[in-house]
Amino acid sequence: MKRRPFLKSTLAASALLLSGLFPYTLHAAETIKVGVLHSLSGTMAISETSLKDMALMTIDEINAKGGVLGKQLEAVVVDPASNWPLFAERGRQLLTQDKVAVTFGCWTSVSRKSVLPVYEELNGLLFYPVQYEGEEMSPNVFYTGAAPNQQAIPAVEYLMSEDGGAAKRYFLLGTDYVYPRTTNKILRAFLISKGVAEKDIEEVYTPFGHSDYQTIVANIKKFSAGGKTAVISTVNGDSNVPFYKELANQGIEATDIPVVAFSVGEEELRGIDTKPLVGQLAAWNYFQSVENPVNTKFVADWKAYAKAKNLPNADTVVTNDPMEATYVGIHMWAQAVEKAGTTDVDKVREAMYGQTFAAPSGYTLTMDKSNHHLHKPVMIGEVQEDGQFEVVWETSSPVRAQPWSPYIEGNDKKPDYAVKSN
């Protein structure tokens, strides 16, 4: 008598199998969905498209080694199209409809802040791979890019040094949104603490997609007449192309007015004649040009992947800092899931603390045990004719992030652990 229900269930399963429904159910159960939330159109596509492709390459790499918890990772890619409110909508879609276990994405801080309430409300997990202004430490975000003390502050200290040109005046040029404005608030306080006068600091902002830098570059030249000047650029997206072209048009060279950029790397320089820009600077935690076995393989794998997938301009693809941060973040998340034995967000969060990974930068990076940020090296590179960077300065070891900058009043009273923003 007991065999009849078993027989019925077996026949039912066979019917589902023949109908084609059962294999789909098995497929859904056997994969772990991973969200990829990057602008593939609009002003930020120049920077973010490569992060999407790097995420897909990393997922393929993990799958080729057996996946995570014996399951294959399945990428769910969405395009918020450089539309900040759309990031929140697409993030909610990934969590509620696509049921992703984790999301890798965002570039601008305004996009991250757009999705943050959604991920905190729904207890989602976001890995954010780009340098940013700090002043945030959410339990639902792991920050694999640099905090200000891992990029902006060391870069300005370099500009103040003899090796960096001993600048006395600072022209802060940025795109008009939260990251440049907050970073420059921190840098202004830092500069004043070092004895730089208010009259020797100029701040200018342009909208996303801005393309006419003729007047601004002329004003930089005029400002530099008052003393040794450096430009600190937090210009984001495709506006970097006309900005650098205008520097060349007006004959500004690095030996006259050095520019240090926080959002320009190898990818942004791909579309620019870099010969007039030789010697200009960028501050990051990784450059493609660093020499070590891990990076040699990383760069070779990326170039092979680009050709295999017929990516645009596959013969000239490059790696950069946010791509490395994406790669590290996905691998660290996979390690944490294996350690936790589940994709449950609360358990993965705990398993992330103290995770390490031998990164292409040549350093072993560690996820801090309390503040959700990576310990990262700091590097300053000079633009070369081929669009690569020669590292001219770097820290001797990874630096612990300070999400709450000591140069903003009241931050010393804030906790050194993640708390929800709302």
Structure description:
The chain has helices at residues 3-19, 21-30, 45-64, 84-96, 109-121, 152-160, 178-193, 214-224, 240-249, 266-269, 293-308, 321-340, 345-352, and strands spanning 31-37, 72-78, 102-105, 126-128, 141-143, 169-175, 201-206, 229-234, 259-261, 281-284, 356-358, 364-367, 374-375, 379-383, 389-394. With 422 residues, the chain is an alpha/beta fold. It has a domain at 149-287 and 408-413: 3-Layer(aba) Sandwich (Rossmann fold), CATH 3.40.50. The strands form three sheets. A seven-stranded mixed β-sheet has the order 7-6-8-9-10-14-15, with helices on both faces. The longest helix has 20 residues, at 45-64. The chain is globular. 47% of the residues are buried.
Summary tags:
alpha/beta; Rossmann fold; seven-stranded mixed beta sheet; 13 helices
